[in-house]
Amino acid sequence: ADRMAHHLSCFDLAWPWKSWVHVAGKADNHPQRAFCKSVIRRLCRLSYHERVRDSLPEELYCLLPHKPSLNPDYIHETLNASSGALHDLQAFMKSKTP
Q1: How many CB atoms lie under 10 A from the CB of residue 56?
Q2: What is the CA radius of gyration of the chain?
């Protein structure tokens, strides 16, 4: 799956995905479904989630991992911290001193 994902990412995600649509109806532990899911997951690591999604037929969207997002609790906690590297970096950028 690693080699396949790497190959597809180098060649504009060009692959006859329509011929793999039957995999969406297979059981979760079926080897073909597991392979496709693994390739798609690795493609999402090598490319943007939207780009991978746009290259797939709609029937295979069920194999896509969840779209990555930021953790709002972590961001809120980090921004409200009274000290730390992020606070220091923000203060440094606001001061604009070289």
Answers
A1: 20
A2: 20
